C-alpha cells in the first residue's frame, strides 16, 4: 500500500465513519465523494497533506476549523446533514450555480474552475457554442431555480480537448455518466464516439420534472475510458445546456419559438432572465393557480395561499415593519402553517432584481435563520413565504402584554447564543458575507422550542438608497443602531454586533 498515491472510492454507497486507519495512508489524492458516510468528520482530516474530497455525504458536522492553507486541498461541499459553507459552490449570477469535485493531476491544469477553449476544426454554424466548454476532474453539477413543471433539457457536447483521432483512439478516451434530478440518463457516455469523431457536435435531449424549485444536472467521471497514467483532463465535459418549458398549450408554444441556449460558462443567466420575463407576463399558467412551496414536497396554489390569509385581513396580521406586513396562513386543514410577508409597494419594482435577491436569500440555510420557503413577484403583489414561528418575536415574548412565556436564565442564554450563531453565519458566509443592518427584538423570532431565529435578513437590499436612509432616520433614535451607520451610513459586521448588544443583551 506504500506505493498507492491515488484512491477514488466515490459513488460506492459507503456508510459509517471515516476509519482511523486512513490517516496513515501515504496518498496524494483521496476521494470519498457521493457516499453515505456519517458521524463527525475527524479532526485529523484538517491536518493531512492529502487532497481530500468529502463532498456529498451525510456527516453530522465538521468538528474543526479548516486552515486557510488547506481550503484548496479539502472539498466539503454538501458533506453534512447540517448546513455547511458551500466553498465549492460557484454562483456567477445569484440565480444559478455549479459545483465541482475532484482534482486534475498535471500542475498546469489543476484548477477547480476549469474552462477549455478551442474553435479550430469545428465546422458547424453554431461553432461558437461548442468552442468553449467546462471540464471537471470527477464530478460537475449545475443548479437552476425554476417553477414546478416539466422542462425540455438539451445537452450540447463536442470533444475539444482530445483532438487527434489517433491519440484519442489509442490513449485518450472520455467516458462519463449523466444524471438529471439524481436519475442516471447516460452511462459511459463517450462524446467523440457518439459524435463520430473529435470536434464534432452532439446533442442529447431529455425531459425533466421540477418539483422543489431546483433543476439539477450532473456529470460524473467513473474512471473509465482513459488509458493515461496518471489521468489528465479526462473528466466530464459540457459545452452548453438548453432548457425550455414543455408547452402546455399552443399559445405558449408560439411564444417559445426561439429555444433558450445557455452557453457555458458566461450566458447561463439568460435562462433565468427569460423565465422571469415569462413569469411576469403570465405565460406560465394562470396566476391564481401558480403553485407556491410551503414545505418539503408541499405546495398550494397562490389562490389558496391568499385565501388562508383571508385576503390579507388585519385579523391574520402577526407583524409589520419597514418592509411590509406579515400574515399567518393555515393550510392543508390546519396541518401546515406559514408566514406570508407582503412587501410594501415602495420596494424595488424590478422583477429581475427581486428574483435575484429571492434566490440568494433562499440559499441561506441555518438553524438560527428563519427559512425562506418561496416567493411570488407579480404586478403589484410581492410575497415572501417563510416558515412560521409560533412564539413570534422576542419583543412580543419579553414585552408583549399577552405573552405567557416564562424565561429562565438558561433559556435567555440559549436565545442569545442562537442569535450570535445566526449572525456569524451571515457575516462569515464564504460567498455572501451579509450584514443584516436591522437587528432588533422585533426581528428575532422564536420557534416552538424557543430557539432564536433571525428574520428580515437581506431585506435592506430590496430597497433604494433613499428609502434605506429614511429607515435609518426612524430607527436611529431607538438607540440600537450603530453610530457610524446612523450618522455616516458605514456598513460593516460591527453594525449588527452593536445592534445585537443594544437590541437584546441589555434587555435580557
From TrEMBL:
One of its GO terms (cellular component) is membrane. Residues 312-508 form the Protein kinase domain. The chain crosses the membrane at residues 259-279. One of its GO terms (molecular function) is ATP binding. It is a single-pass type I membrane protein. Pfam families: LRR_1, Malectin, PK_Tyr_Ser-Thr. It comes from the Eukaryota. Its main location: membrane. Its EC number is 2.7.11.1. The keyword Isomerase does not apply. PROSITE patterns: PROTEIN_KINASE_ATP (PS00107), PROTEIN_KINASE_DOM (PS50011), PROTEIN_KINASE_ST (PS00108). It is an enzyme of class 2 (transferase). ATP binds at residue 341. Keywords: ATP-binding, Glycoprotein, Kinase, Leucine-rich repeat, Membrane, Nucleotide-binding, Phosphoprotein, Receptor, Repeat, Serine/threonine-protein kinase, Signal, Transferase, Transmembrane, Transmembrane helix. This is non-specific serine/threonine protein kinase. It comes from Prunus avium. The lineage of its organism: Eukaryota, Viridiplantae, Streptophyta, Embryophyta, Tracheophyta.
